[in-house]
Amino acid sequence: MSGTIETGLFRGFLAAVLLLPLALGGQRPVAWNLFAVVVAALAFALALRLALGVQRAPVSARQLAPVALPFALALLWAAFQATGGVLTHVSHPLWAEAAAALGAGTSDAISVDPERTIQALLRAASFALVFWLAVQFGRDRERARHAVVAFVAASIAYAAYGLVMHFSGREAILWFAKEAYLGDLTSTFVNRNAYGAYAGLGLLASALLLLDSVRPVLGARRVGARDVAETLLLRGTPYLAAMALTGTALLLSHSRGAFLATALAVLALLLVVAATRFVKPVQAGAFALLLCLVGGGVLGMSGDGTLWRLAETAERVGDAPERMADDARAPLNALTLDAIAAAPLVGHGYGAFLPAFRIYRDTELAAPLVWEFAHNSYLEAAMELGLPSAGLFLLAPLLILLRCIRGALRRRRDQVYSILAVAAAVLAGAHGLVDFSPQIPAVAATLALLLGLGYAQSWSSRDDDA
Question: Does residue 164 lie in a domain region?
């Protein structure tokens, strides 16, 4: 009975993460609120079972402390930003101006918009719970594999839906008419860049499962070309098809940032595979050649639009909205840096970029465009949280990445999950330099899932110093 309940919690957890992209990428409040409630309920149920001793925690608090502590401190500061009446001398100056204009007290919070800060805090806590649940469930190797396979299946489904909609010429997301990114494949996401990042994660997972499925044959002492071909056909075909589908969908999204970030993540994946004992160097080279062949084929058939947009960036051509958005990146970054300099220690409020940025926006930015995000997740974190707390906030994923690199290099089996986590972190980290896809709920939840699985499998049961 105990195992049945635990399995039910695990399946409910996977369903919540894998169905979130269906709700427009989780970008609507009703979608992420429901997701937050479901994840919190699942986490509470598992925590209650651990507290009552019904089951033992697969990963102890000591093993999670290095990651949890800096992240918790950053969220604690975010909560403090939304609280007024504590340290009035560091409250946002906008509140004093509002009080003077209205002739009455308004607020003395650090955050320019406490309500947005609380909402962002709840989202971040939900993604932290996704990571914790993935770590606890993912310590079991069978569940870890089941989770990655389920994610690949979900990425295939979203890619297939996007391809059907794209080639049918329907400019819609589910039953909603598209208001932006016409001609771009966005699947069930609103933003092409967010879907491009999600498809890139699916591509990485498919590629690693392909390598893991053929590894037993490649590792044999005597293996011929016929054996390799049969193994690819029998075991690798589903993952090759997944790579082709997600790769095609990624290219048809026409997201330059997602394409380049995925390419960098694939390179990181190959480097980690070559540096570990996952496969022999010759086999890693053969795998790299296979990825080049598949990638080249997909790029040749579906990459015209993305390659054109990359050339457009270099030559400064394209339609007016594209040029307007591209030309705005430099002043956007400069103005964000000005906002950081104005409150380097305390920030302007976690999740409050949109209202805070209005104070610093000038005529260099095109008037029709609304900047809800900074298009650089690192600068946005520094502006919202302040430099010290932003450093703590970003330290957590960095420590996870380092732990997964260590696990990939040291483990003798099940390195696939740590390698995938490293590649996923590189993709999200690189894309976060030029866009905000890591902040989209469906992408953030999927990333937390993959990082949690990699972290859980980053040490063996004999590794006492984990």
Answer: yes
